Amino acid sequence: MLEKMEILDVEKLIGDFEVMTKDAENVQRETLKMILEENGCAEYLQNMGLNGRTDPESFKACVPLVTHKDLEPYIQRVADGAFSPILTGKPITTISLSSGTTQGKPKFVPFNNELMETTLQIYHTSFAFRNREFPIENGKALQFIYSSKHSKTKGGLFAGTATTNVFRNPQFKKAMTAMQSECCSPDEVIVGPDFHQSLYCHLLCGLIFHEEIQLVSSTFAHSIVLAFRTFEQVWEELCDDIREGVLTSRITFPSVRSAMAKLLKPNPELADLIEKKCSRLSNWYGLIPELFPNVKYIYGIMTGSMEPYLKKLRHYAADVPLISADYGSSEGWIGANINPSLPPESTTYAVLPNIGYFEFIPLKENVEGHMQENGNVSFLSTEPKPVGLTEVKVGEEYEVIITSFAGLYRYRLGDVVKVMGFHNSTPELKFVCRRNLMLTINIDKNTEKDLQLAVEEAAKLIAEEKREVIDFSSNVDVSADPGHYVIFWEISGEVSDEVLKECCNCLDRSFVDAGYVSSRKVNAIGPLELRVVWKGTFHKILDHYLRLGAVVSQFKTPRYVGPTNNKVLQILCDNVAKNYFSTAF
User: Fold this and answer.
1) Where are the bilayer-spanning segments (predicted)?
2) Are 448 and 415 in contact (CB under 8 A)?
3) In which region does residue 514 sit, left (phi positive, over 0), alpha (psi from -120 to 50) or beta (all else)?
4) DSSP 8-state class, residue 341
5) 190: domain range?
6) What is the pLDDT of residues 368-424, one digit of tens each?
7) Higher confidence at residue 486 or residue 158?
8) How far is residue 514's CA from residue 242's CA, in Å, rounded to a whole number?
9) Last residue in a domain, options 320, 349, 366
10) What does each C-alpha distance from 565 to 102, 440, 517 come to in angstroms?
11) Is residue 346 classed as helix, strand or coil in its secondary structure?
12) Closest listed residue to residue 114, CA positions, set 137, 83, 91
């Protein structure tokens, strides 16, 4: 039905969503039943002793909670081309690769048509609510999206990043057209083999269609900020291309050059206009609405590890609304942003009860319920039992468990969420952090969110000198006793030693976890170290992941670099310009 639709019926989509979320508990039972009936013949489920039962009680009693490590042997057999049903009833034909920024290497995750259907449902649902608040007409979207090459697994399955599998699916383009959000760049640019060349061409296409651009988007906020930081460097070259109607020689791939040649015609008036706009901007403030006068909003994932980029994105956006995209992962989707007028920091995600079966492990009762072993979180037997989608409580934090249509059963996603309220009977979740990204040496436990808050506090000191933290990461140095936290900063310009010493002290004081503070006071944890790296260091980290097959669309700067990620740690350590030790305690 959606294939035949030219434009989405927004009110019908919202109406269907309202009906479904009013009966979330029953929809969940039916969804689980459908998943188990479709995949009951799979070896994994056959071994669990369900014997055809599809009710939640039997499912929870028979099927254990698992992590990716538990499922890895099964997924590997699928990737190696096993003919019998391993995880799903229907054969898996595609493998998604996770970004790999957490553990240093990408994970294999099954991808199938059902997962693509849930992707489209999430896209359509959030678009319906978004378009009611910020209606767009039939224009174009400047989408900074990139698709890596599909490779083949040993068993002949297509393998690519999750975003690549979505962007290359014919349904994606139809969905964008139905949502009046067609990308202004040709397909050859999106699938171009070199990210830097594709980014340049995305910017050029945006300028060519500057009056038609209604929204600017990417998968993550980081990609949008990176695009406009790049624009600051290449805008004069872009103007030359537009003025002469000839593409710069930096674009070397014939397919990309050929596609761009069809769009690029000499336009000195447009080149003059862009030059005039750029020259009158103060420090590039308001760049996006200046270039694209009809832009309605900027869209991408802006929560979690993307929050640190919001300040720079707001600088480029001026008064253009920022809207955070939906909540999902390579493993599957969870919720849609149905309150698009909220600022990204307050974004919540309403869980769609028919796209998977969801459980939640309460974390409040389990504050001491996990410990650190060799950098990995070890879950103790005292952990509370998971609760169902409609049983969660407002104000409480949980770890998300997902059962999907793509062969993941009671899978620990590793995300911590907070229940902010309910939409009808489905919860609205706020993403808090990744559970396994944790700075810890002794009895201290500091999450990605704690690190982000500490960096934001300390960064205020350099903001007074008109400088900003471009990016950051962290590490625990236990090479000497006592061990200590190491924070890596890349800064936009020179800052005095005096100010950076105070930044280091501020970082140390800003970790308010009781275990950390008490350990620092008795020197069980050593003074925090701030290492300032040369400009461009985090771009080297991005390039490292691109060489491993990642795509910019899916890239997230690793906020904690653990022992399994020694190549990234080496890049950071090899590029240290200055370092400081805290005297705060």
Assistant:
1) none
2) no
3) alpha
4) T
5) 135-150+180-320
6) 444 444 444 444 446 789 999 999 999 999 999 999 998 999 999 988 899 999 999
7) 486
8) 58
9) 320
10) 8, 16, 27
11) helix
12) 91
Both tokens assigned to 226: 């990176």
The answer to whether the bond into 482 is cis (omega within 30° of 0) is yes
The larger pLDDT score, comparing residue 100 to residue 173, is at 173
Task: Of 302, 345, 355, give the one whose Cα is nearest residue 325.
Answer: 302
| Domain count for the chain | 2
Q: What is the dihedral of CA 357, 362, 366, 372, to 10 degrees?
A: 40
Task: Please give the distance of CA 90 from its chain centroid, rounded to a whole number.
Answer: 29
As a whole number of angstroms, the distance between CA 432 and CA 325 comes to 15
Band of residue 437 on the pLDDT scale cut at 50, 70, 90: low
- In three-state secondary structure terms, 407 is coil
Please count the helices (runs of H) and the strands (runs of E) in the chain: 20, 24
Note the pLDDT of residue 182: 81
Return the percentage of the chain with pLDDT > 70, whole number.
Answer: 93
Count other C-beta atoms under 10 Å from residue 85's C-beta: 20
The verdict on residue 275 lying in a domain is yes
Distance, in Å, from the CA atom of 152 to the CA atom of 159, rounded to the nearest integer, reads: 6
State the helix-helix crossing angle for 113-133 and 10-22, rounded to 10 degrees.
Answer: 110
* Number of residues assigned to the chain: 585
Cα–Cα distance measured from residue 111 to residue 107, given in angstroms and rounded to the nearest whole number: 12
61-86: per-residue pLDDT in tens? 999 999 988 989 988 888 888 878 98
Alpha-carbon span 16 to 23, nearest angstrom: 11
Single out the residue in 274, 296, 320 at which a domain terminates: 320
The answer to whether residue 165 sits within a structural domain is: no
Q: Quick one: pLDDT at residue 386?
A: 94
pLDDT band of 231, cuts 50, 70, 90: very high
Q: Is residue 503 a part of any domain in this protein? A: yes
- Whether the Cβ atoms of residue 352 and residue 326 lie closer than 8 Å to each other: no
- Here the tokens at position 289 are 């609405």
Name the strand (E) or helix (H) holding 69: helix 68-79
What distances in angstroms separate CA 552 from CA 340, 458, 548, one per listed residue? Answer: 25, 28, 12
Give CA–CA dist 326/308, Å, rounded: 18
Token pair, residue 337, equals 């942003």
The model carries a pTM of 0.79
**347 within domain boundaries:** no
> Residue 382 has what pLDDT?
66
Q: Say if residue 147's pLDDT is above 70.
A: yes
